[in-house]
């Protein structure tokens, strides 16, 4: 089994959309325009490819964006710098292969050299104890709860994980010109207009 974790490409988008919308109630459905927003704006958008087949994807955004998710806004109102995992989806045929852990290791590696906090949420209605346990064993702690969108929206648990490596990276590199110019530390290329300087790899946000 040949596994590759790589940045999403435009030719992946149809398969990503189909995979997202087949995931059931645990994942909010998307349309093509919403997926295009992520393709153009997400700081982290990577897919897992197994033997040439799309097996899953993870999307994460840093603070300071114009994303209107109530959960992203919740973190924006409380934390000055973070990476927010918006969604992770694994195809049914590739579940129980450890891809969730592989993605979380990869997004942690991305985040810990840029921000002090990794954030996400899990649905409590319906509650999935396997998902709650997964996040707990991976070091996430609940920092709040809210209902999405309205008083009748689904209850979510808002989770955060402190990234202890960030302090060292910050004082060693980010405060002295930025991260080393290495391929594995580079930001993904966006198809949107040029990102502001604070989105370049290794630079601190004001």
From TrEMBL:
Q: Which organism is it from?
A: Rhodanobacter lycopersici
Q: Record's superkingdom?
A: Bacteria
UniProt protein name = GNAT family N-acetyltransferase
Quote the CDD domains the UniProt record gives. Answer: NAT_SF
**UniProt cross-references to PROSITE patterns, sorted A to Z:** GNAT (PS51186)
Cross-referenced InterPro entries, in alphabetical order?
Acyl_CoA_acyltransferase, GNAT_dom
Describe the location of the N-acetyltransferase domain by residue ranges: 3-164
Pfam families assigned to the protein according to its UniProt record, in alphabetical order: Acetyltransf_1 (PF00583)
